[in-house]
Protein backbone atom coordinates (compact mmCIF):
# COMPACT_ATOMS: atom_id res chain seq x y z
CA UNK A 1 0.00 0.00 0.00
CA UNK A 2 1.47 3.35 -1.04
CA UNK A 3 2.19 5.93 1.64
CA UNK A 4 1.56 9.59 0.91
CA UNK A 5 2.95 12.60 2.70
CA UNK A 6 -0.43 13.13 4.39
CA UNK A 7 -0.20 9.66 5.93
CA UNK A 8 3.01 10.64 7.69
CA UNK A 9 2.25 13.45 10.16
CA UNK A 10 5.87 13.71 11.26
CA UNK A 11 6.89 14.80 7.77
CA UNK A 12 6.42 18.48 6.96
CA UNK A 13 5.50 19.45 3.43
CA UNK A 14 8.78 20.08 1.63
CA UNK A 15 9.79 23.68 1.09
CA UNK A 16 12.27 22.78 -1.62
CA UNK A 17 12.27 22.96 -5.39
CA UNK A 18 10.60 20.09 -7.23
CA UNK A 19 13.90 18.91 -8.68
CA UNK A 20 15.22 18.24 -5.15
CA UNK A 21 12.14 16.36 -4.02
CA UNK A 22 13.94 13.02 -4.15
CA UNK A 23 14.96 13.43 -0.51
CA UNK A 24 11.33 13.53 0.61
CA UNK A 25 10.47 10.63 -1.67
CA UNK A 26 13.29 8.62 -0.11
CA UNK A 27 12.04 9.33 3.40
CA UNK A 28 8.54 8.31 2.42
CA UNK A 29 9.88 5.05 1.00
CA UNK A 30 11.87 4.39 4.18
CA UNK A 31 8.75 5.04 6.24
CA UNK A 32 6.78 2.63 4.08
CA UNK A 33 9.41 -0.08 4.60
CA UNK A 34 9.33 0.51 8.37
CA UNK A 35 5.55 0.19 8.49
CA UNK A 36 5.62 -2.99 6.42
CA UNK A 37 8.35 -4.56 8.56
CA UNK A 38 6.48 -3.70 11.74
CA UNK A 39 3.33 -5.29 10.33
CA UNK A 40 5.29 -8.40 9.34
CA UNK A 41 6.81 -8.69 12.80
CA UNK A 42 3.38 -8.37 14.42
CA UNK A 43 2.10 -11.22 12.23
CA UNK A 44 5.17 -13.33 13.06
CA UNK A 45 4.45 -12.85 16.74
CA UNK A 46 0.84 -13.94 16.17
CA UNK A 47 2.11 -17.16 14.60
CA UNK A 48 4.52 -17.81 17.48
CA UNK A 49 1.91 -17.05 20.13
CA UNK A 50 -0.59 -19.32 18.39
CA UNK A 51 2.00 -22.13 18.27
CA UNK A 52 2.79 -21.65 21.95
CA UNK A 53 -0.91 -21.85 22.85
CA UNK A 54 -1.44 -24.96 20.72
CA UNK A 55 1.45 -26.76 22.40
CA UNK A 56 0.14 -25.94 25.88
CA UNK A 57 -3.42 -26.93 25.01
CA UNK A 58 -2.49 -30.29 23.50
CA UNK A 59 0.76 -31.14 25.31
CA UNK A 60 2.28 -31.97 21.93
CA UNK A 61 3.58 -30.44 18.71
CA UNK A 62 1.47 -32.65 16.46
CA UNK A 63 -0.48 -29.76 14.93
CA UNK A 64 -0.09 -29.07 11.22
CA UNK A 65 0.99 -25.76 9.74
CA UNK A 66 -2.52 -25.35 8.33
CA UNK A 67 -3.96 -25.70 11.84
CA UNK A 68 -1.44 -23.17 13.10
CA UNK A 69 -2.40 -20.70 10.36
CA UNK A 70 -6.08 -21.01 11.34
CA UNK A 71 -5.26 -20.31 15.01
CA UNK A 72 -3.11 -17.35 13.97
CA UNK A 73 -6.00 -16.11 11.79
CA UNK A 74 -4.08 -15.94 8.55
CA UNK A 75 -3.63 -18.03 5.43
CA UNK A 76 -1.28 -21.00 5.32
CA UNK A 77 0.62 -19.33 2.47
CA UNK A 78 1.10 -16.12 4.47
CA UNK A 79 2.30 -17.93 7.58
CA UNK A 80 4.84 -19.94 5.57
CA UNK A 81 6.18 -16.84 3.83
CA UNK A 82 6.53 -14.99 7.13
CA UNK A 83 8.34 -17.60 9.20
CA UNK A 84 8.88 -20.81 7.24
CA UNK A 85 8.02 -24.41 8.05
CA UNK A 86 7.19 -26.10 11.32
CA UNK A 87 10.80 -26.61 12.36
CA UNK A 88 11.51 -22.91 11.91
CA UNK A 89 8.47 -21.98 14.01
CA UNK A 90 9.39 -24.31 16.86
CA UNK A 91 13.06 -23.38 16.89
CA UNK A 92 12.09 -19.71 16.91
CA UNK A 93 10.07 -20.42 20.05
CA UNK A 94 13.12 -22.01 21.62
CA UNK A 95 15.28 -19.05 20.57
CA UNK A 96 12.76 -16.71 22.15
CA UNK A 97 13.01 -18.70 25.36
CA UNK A 98 16.79 -18.26 25.48
CA UNK A 99 16.31 -14.52 25.00
CA UNK A 100 13.97 -14.49 27.98
CA UNK A 101 16.43 -16.44 30.13
CA UNK A 102 19.20 -14.02 29.23
CA UNK A 103 17.06 -11.11 30.41
CA UNK A 104 16.35 -12.65 33.84
CA UNK A 105 18.36 -10.96 36.61
CA UNK A 106 20.36 -12.81 39.23
CA UNK A 107 19.83 -12.02 42.91
CA UNK A 108 23.59 -12.35 43.49
CA UNK A 109 26.23 -9.76 42.61
CA UNK A 110 29.05 -11.43 40.62
CA UNK A 111 31.56 -9.05 42.18
CA UNK A 112 30.67 -9.89 45.79
CA UNK A 113 30.25 -13.67 45.39
CA UNK A 114 31.18 -14.87 41.88
CA UNK A 115 30.82 -18.55 42.76
CA UNK A 116 27.28 -18.17 44.11
CA UNK A 117 26.43 -15.97 41.14
CA UNK A 118 27.32 -18.59 38.54
CA UNK A 119 25.52 -21.35 40.45
CA UNK A 120 22.41 -19.17 40.69
CA UNK A 121 22.59 -18.51 36.95
CA UNK A 122 22.33 -22.26 36.46
CA UNK A 123 19.33 -22.41 38.79
CA UNK A 124 17.62 -19.58 36.89
CA UNK A 125 17.98 -21.38 33.55
CA UNK A 126 16.66 -24.68 34.93
CA UNK A 127 13.77 -23.00 36.75
CA UNK A 128 12.71 -21.28 33.54
CA UNK A 129 12.21 -24.61 31.77
CA UNK A 130 10.74 -26.64 34.64
CA UNK A 131 8.21 -23.90 35.41
CA UNK A 132 6.40 -24.72 32.16
CA UNK A 133 6.71 -28.46 31.46
CA UNK A 134 3.53 -28.63 29.34
CA UNK A 135 5.23 -26.34 26.85
CA UNK A 136 8.94 -27.10 27.04
CA UNK A 137 8.84 -30.89 27.26
CA UNK A 138 7.02 -31.52 23.96
CA UNK A 139 8.86 -28.65 22.26
CA UNK A 140 12.28 -29.96 23.30
CA UNK A 141 11.44 -33.60 22.50
CA UNK A 142 10.48 -32.65 18.96
CA UNK A 143 13.35 -30.31 18.22
CA UNK A 144 16.08 -32.50 19.69
CA UNK A 145 14.89 -35.35 17.49
CA UNK A 146 14.94 -33.39 14.23
CA UNK A 147 18.01 -32.93 12.04
CA UNK A 148 18.32 -29.19 11.36
CA UNK A 149 21.55 -27.70 10.01
CA UNK A 150 20.33 -24.11 10.23
CA UNK A 151 18.27 -23.48 13.35
CA UNK A 152 19.83 -25.93 15.81
CA UNK A 153 23.41 -24.59 15.46
CA UNK A 154 22.08 -21.05 15.92
CA UNK A 155 20.19 -22.15 19.04
CA UNK A 156 23.26 -23.85 20.49
CA UNK A 157 25.39 -20.80 19.72
CA UNK A 158 22.93 -18.54 21.54
CA UNK A 159 22.93 -20.83 24.58
CA UNK A 160 26.72 -20.92 24.58
CA UNK A 161 26.80 -17.13 24.49
CA UNK A 162 24.55 -17.02 27.57
CA UNK A 163 26.97 -19.12 29.62
CA UNK A 164 29.97 -17.33 28.19
CA UNK A 165 28.49 -14.00 29.33
CA UNK A 166 28.05 -15.42 32.83
CA UNK A 167 31.71 -16.48 32.82
CA UNK A 168 32.77 -12.99 31.73
CA UNK A 169 30.89 -11.53 34.71
CA UNK A 170 32.75 -13.64 37.26
CA UNK A 171 36.06 -13.42 35.39
CA UNK A 172 36.05 -9.70 36.13
CA UNK A 173 36.03 -10.53 39.85
CA UNK A 174 38.42 -13.46 39.75
CA UNK A 175 40.55 -13.86 36.59
CA UNK A 176 40.66 -17.15 34.72
CA UNK A 177 43.87 -19.16 34.58
CA UNK A 178 45.74 -18.57 31.36
CA UNK A 179 44.90 -22.02 29.97
CA UNK A 180 41.12 -21.42 30.09
CA UNK A 181 38.81 -18.96 28.33
CA UNK A 182 35.23 -17.80 28.82
CA UNK A 183 34.44 -19.68 25.60
CA UNK A 184 35.70 -22.93 27.17
CA UNK A 185 33.31 -22.47 30.06
CA UNK A 186 30.41 -21.49 27.79
CA UNK A 187 30.90 -24.51 25.53
CA UNK A 188 31.19 -26.99 28.40
CA UNK A 189 28.15 -25.82 30.35
CA UNK A 190 25.96 -25.29 27.30
CA UNK A 191 26.70 -28.80 26.02
CA UNK A 192 25.92 -30.29 29.41
CA UNK A 193 22.78 -28.19 29.80
CA UNK A 194 21.46 -29.37 26.42
CA UNK A 195 21.98 -32.98 27.48
CA UNK A 196 20.28 -32.52 30.86
CA UNK A 197 17.41 -30.64 29.20
CA UNK A 198 16.90 -33.57 26.85
CA UNK A 199 16.81 -36.03 29.77
CA UNK A 200 14.25 -33.88 31.59
CA UNK A 201 12.15 -33.44 28.44
CA UNK A 202 11.93 -37.23 28.07
CA UNK A 203 11.08 -37.52 31.79
CA UNK A 204 14.21 -39.56 32.44
CA UNK A 205 15.22 -37.25 35.28
CA UNK A 206 13.11 -35.32 37.77
CA UNK A 207 13.00 -31.59 38.25
CA UNK A 208 15.28 -31.90 41.29
CA UNK A 209 17.74 -34.00 39.28
CA UNK A 210 17.80 -31.36 36.54
CA UNK A 211 18.84 -28.71 39.07
CA UNK A 212 21.42 -31.09 40.54
CA UNK A 213 22.90 -32.01 37.14
CA UNK A 214 23.56 -28.37 36.27
CA UNK A 215 25.05 -27.51 39.67
CA UNK A 216 27.20 -30.65 39.38
CA UNK A 217 28.43 -29.65 35.90
CA UNK A 218 29.13 -26.04 36.86
CA UNK A 219 30.99 -27.07 40.00
CA UNK A 220 33.20 -29.62 38.23
CA UNK A 221 33.98 -27.09 35.48
CA UNK A 222 34.82 -24.40 38.04
CA UNK A 223 37.33 -26.71 39.73
CA UNK A 224 39.46 -26.19 36.63
CA UNK A 225 39.38 -22.47 37.39
CA UNK A 226 41.92 -23.30 40.08
CA UNK A 227 40.76 -21.01 42.88
CA UNK A 228 41.91 -22.69 46.12
CA UNK A 229 39.38 -20.79 48.23
CA UNK A 230 36.54 -22.17 46.08
CA UNK A 231 37.50 -25.83 46.37
CA UNK A 232 35.71 -26.66 49.68
CA UNK A 233 32.44 -25.10 48.47
CA UNK A 234 32.68 -26.74 45.07
CA UNK A 235 33.38 -30.17 46.55
CA UNK A 236 30.37 -29.73 48.85
CA UNK A 237 28.18 -28.78 45.85
CA UNK A 238 29.39 -31.82 43.90
CA UNK A 239 28.72 -34.17 46.83
CA UNK A 240 25.22 -32.76 47.39
CA UNK A 241 24.37 -32.96 43.68
CA UNK A 242 25.72 -36.50 43.45
CA UNK A 243 23.25 -37.71 46.08
CA UNK A 244 20.29 -36.33 44.11
CA UNK A 245 21.54 -37.44 40.69
CA UNK A 246 22.01 -41.04 41.83
CA UNK A 247 18.91 -41.24 44.00
CA UNK A 248 16.52 -44.11 43.15
TrEMBL record:
It comes from the Bacteria. Keywords: DNA-binding. One of its GO terms (molecular function) is DNA binding. Gene3D superfamilies: Tetracycline Repressor, domain 2. Residues 64-83 bind DNA. The keyword DNA-binding applies. The keyword DNA-binding applies. InterPro entries: Homeodomain-like_sf, HTH_TetR. Residues 41-101 form the HTH tetR-type domain. This is HTH tetR-type domain-containing protein. It comes from Novosphingobium colocasiae.
Amino acid sequence: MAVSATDWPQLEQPRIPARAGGTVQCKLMEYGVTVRERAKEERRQRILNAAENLIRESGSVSFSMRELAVHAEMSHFTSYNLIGGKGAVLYTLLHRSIDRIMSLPSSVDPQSDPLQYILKMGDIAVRFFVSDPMFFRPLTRYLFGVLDHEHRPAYMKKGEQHWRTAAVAIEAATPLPAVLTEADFGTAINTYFAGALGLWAHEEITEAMFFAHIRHAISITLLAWGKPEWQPRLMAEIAAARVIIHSP
